Each structure stands twice: as structure tokens, then as C-alpha cells.
Amino acid sequence: MANFTVVPGAAVSAILADSHKDVLRIVAETYVAHEEGQSVNPDSYFLRFPEKPNARVIALPSYLGGTVDTIGIKWIASFPDNIQQGLPRASATLLLNDYATGYPLACLEAASISAARTAASAAVAAAELVAAEEPVRVSFVGAGVIARTILDYLHANGVAVADVLVHDLDDTSAGHLLAHAAERLGVPVAAGSLAQALTRDLVVFATTAATPYVGGDTPLRAGQVLLNVSLRDLAPELLLKSNNVVDDVDHCLKAQTSPHLTEQLTGGRDFINGTLGALLQGRVTLDPARPTVFSPFGLGILDLAVGHHLLGEARRRGSAVEIPDFIGETSRW
Fold first, then answer.
1. What NCBIfam families does the record tag this protein with (predicted)?
2. What's the pLDDT at 1?
3. Are strands 52-64 and 70-78 parallel, antiparallel or unpaired?
């Protein structure tokens, strides 16, 4: 109990590189556990800065029962201006605590954990929502780390892709994602306009947009799937024309997300068909004549569950760094 474990970023990345199937399974199981009431996932807490209005640091506390039975908190910084210096936008740590005593157990570098759980969430939803028997045409609106990781997890989760179109305001970012898609999937790739991206079977939004720019009159078609990962790209009128699946209703309908704006516009939540956990349980009915939008706010329990697995795996592989006598006092008297 007096010891503490640190799992550095290099160790986390090495484990995640060959653990896509494990992460997909863990994320799906965690959604179901959340649906069954085995979790505590309070609101996220946002730290903002008057001199840096586009930057923020978010705290995501959580508890997950079952075989995880652990407390955790992710502390993730989003500084979009980093991109101009060639740095990743996000950085994060994950702190795990023992549920029996509350004592801290471990700290993991968590930017890659956050990206992996976000991507796995999108891939789990896509596998449930994409009904096409043939490979689907996929587009990415936004070409950063999250988009790249989602592409990897779509592939790992068996979503067959016919070709990939990328739209990004930054040509360099678009080029990197196109090269990655061509190498990873071996399918035709191309850069394109937003209008072209919105015609694809599966559209992935992974931007830093603060307000909707995809208008309510945008033509969508039956069976089309939009993964609204960045949450604020779509006008509320567009959601009202679609099936809507979220990760958690209360969490997703806040912070001026597209679903939150839709609730404000209509005064209700009837436009939401259900949660991903309920969808995995077969308890959500969707209208096949409509497109479907999946909006994941991002639950701390996903980071916690993936981090718990990585901690065990790092210890097994010998890549965890143990700090002896981290707790100063282990006896009350």
C-alpha cells in the first residue's frame, strides 16, 4: 500500500499498439456496465483561462465497479495553439486510486489512453450503426491525432472501408492522414471539400470547432452514419432530422454541444433515441429512413477502465516504474 506506480508514455504507447482488440472489448463492456448502474461518472470540470480562451484543462473523475473496482481521474489539457508549433493539442495524466482505502495506486501518461478510448468508442458505435453489406465510403472532417486513431480502431473493429476522403483546413494535416490511411488500409484516398465529405456513408467529425458550421439544410440520406466525435460541428436542425445516439444523455446535453443546442431549441430530449450502452444491449430502435448521428461526450469511466487494464499489463511486461514508500504514513498512530 505504501508503494506507487508510474506508467510512462512510452510504455503506454507500446501496450496500446498491440491492444486494439482489448481496448474495443473494454470500452464496449464499460458502456454496458454504465448502463447497468455499475459506475459513478459525475460531471467533468473545466478550467479555463481569460488570456487563452481556446485553451482548457478538464478533470474527469469516476468510479467503475465490477472487476475494475477502482477510482480514477483524468486530467487532460487541450491547447489548440500547440498545433502551430508542431506539438499535439492534448496532453493528459490518469490517476488511479484504490476503492477499498482511497489511497493512490498509480499515475499513467494518458494522452494516448484518451485518444484510444475515444477512437474505440467511435469504432464500437460504427460497427453497430453501419448496416451496409459492402465496404463503406468513409470521410474524415478534421485530420488530427483523434482522426488517425479512429481510423485505426475502425479497421481493428472490422469496419470494411472502400475508400477514404479527408477534409481539413490544414493541408499538411490532411496529407498526413491520407498517407496513414493508404498505408494502413490499402484503399484509395483523396482530399476533398466539406460538401464532398458529407456525401460519404460514414462521416467522422474530429475537429476543434466551437460552434456548428454544418447547416440544418445539409442533405443527408437514409442509413448514413455521422460520428459527431468533436460534438459541436452540426446544427441542431440537422439532429432533428436524424436518429440520435449518445454515450450518456445527461453528460452529452451540456457545454453547448450539438445535442445541447438541440435541447435548447426544442425544450426537450425526445430527439434522442438512446445510448450506446442500450444499443449494445439491443434496446434502441432507429428509423431506417433517417441518417444516424452518434455524439459521445466522453466518459471518465472509459479512461479508467482502459487505464486499469494498462496498469496490469505494464506490471506484467515489466514496463511499470514502481516508487517505493510513496505514501509517507501508513499507520494512524
1. dehyd_SbnB_fam
2. 62
3. antiparallel
